[in-house]
């Protein structure tokens, strides 16, 4: 079982750090699934009483890592599955964020066995005061999940949704949902194929309706017959979710994206998708609640 | 509002009472502000009790908050402050002031314009918020109104020989209060034509005392008008309620007379030079000892 990967681009390193920081805000532990082509992270604290939703990130290894080599424990296996503290990983990568004071040349990730298995994060940093690069090494302890336990660590699937809308005002959305959690415990997402999204929070004291209009329609379920085409154009779906959970997701986001894709599966769930790059995508699911 | 109505018809919004009432044809109150910032910080400054009373007339809009029978804060906005101000009769109603403040801050730091509408007794107060930097987003808030609770009327006798008036720079006064003993129970205000002119003494449980004196020649003081010495004590907690107003005020007027009733005016200036006032009335503590 071997794994090593190397990042060279400053922008990609910063994004990778932002992903780890986002995960650390959501949960204590994260699952790292290393495949031949992709690296995945999952955080899921649904079983706990916390309000964090299920979030997972898929990273195309070619996008971030010019060098990426993964050898599974046995040749017939496809993955290495690790569990680690999200906070430790985020702290180990924090050096990549460094701004003007020093520059990071490269960052290596390596699976190592010292007294215990760990992911070694090795960043090569150059300070402005010296020409010699220095290495910043963090060993993040990990638990290797044996293949027999993999069924409990399966990557979630994106549920099928009737409608997907792209909302370009992520910053507004974040502060809005953060305030709405003080108004109402549940929040209704109501989207239409005309490119409109309404967020409704109702309580005894107030009703607050926010409309996002002229949104980009990313997907409507393909109609089977011509008569259904008209119906699809007038499609409207809604789903109510836990406001605290939604707020926890938006407040955790550390990425600079301005657009988020919101998929609505009628009265089942809200699927959130953040396209960081074409092969680097963050997903989350907010399950429906009954009002 | 049309928008909420559509959502109600579709069954997304359930609370019918929060829609505009059809038994009224016209609005009793319509007012619009281009920038929400000063208004929001003024509302925050008086947000110390559950309910606030809004009273509109040709002279402007008054929002009054009281706690017990000993402290009253009124936000006064002149019609000139509004980009649009129409009032029919003299509508007055009460709302939960923290819900109003919450609604005003929905878009966080983004500047937005606000329109407030009210139809009449039993109808909700409607707020329409539109951020300036994103014209695809708009919010409608409808806040439940209740029957007005007549605010107490406090008044200082303007012709009284003991009426003392001081105008001070807001940030300076705010600094003075910031440095006062936080653990004190009572503050004693002395205003006198002779030295020390203006003195604040703090009195604590442990008989600890501290005092600040401001001479009338000080740069902090814009106007000092005093003929007779007045001394009165106030509850520290009540004085502290003026904190938020003081922090954002550009100028503060302090008025009192022999009765000890304290009137403070805080001038909130926005970028476009228009002004908003917050006025506090604080009743003095009774003299316990007979000296």
From TrEMBL, chain A:
Its main location: nucleus. Transmembrane segments: none annotated. The keyword Nucleus applies. Keywords: Nucleus. GO terms for biological process: double-strand break repair via homologous recombination; meiotic DNA integrity checkpoint signaling; mitotic DNA replication checkpoint signaling; mitotic intra-S DNA damage checkpoint signaling; nucleotide-excision repair; telomere maintenance. It holds the Pfam family Hus1. It is found in: Nucleus. InterPro entries: HUS1, HUS1/Mec3. It comes from the Eukaryota. One of its GO terms (cellular component) is site of double-strand break. This is Checkpoint protein. The gene is Dvir\GJ10113.
From TrEMBL, chain B:
One of its GO terms (cellular component) is checkpoint clamp complex. Keywords: DNA damage, DNA repair, Nucleus. It comes from the Eukaryota. It holds the Pfam family Rad1. It is found in: Nucleus. The keyword Nucleus applies. The keyword Nucleus applies. GO terms for biological process: DNA damage checkpoint signaling; DNA repair. Belongs to the rad1 family. This is Cell cycle checkpoint protein RAD1.
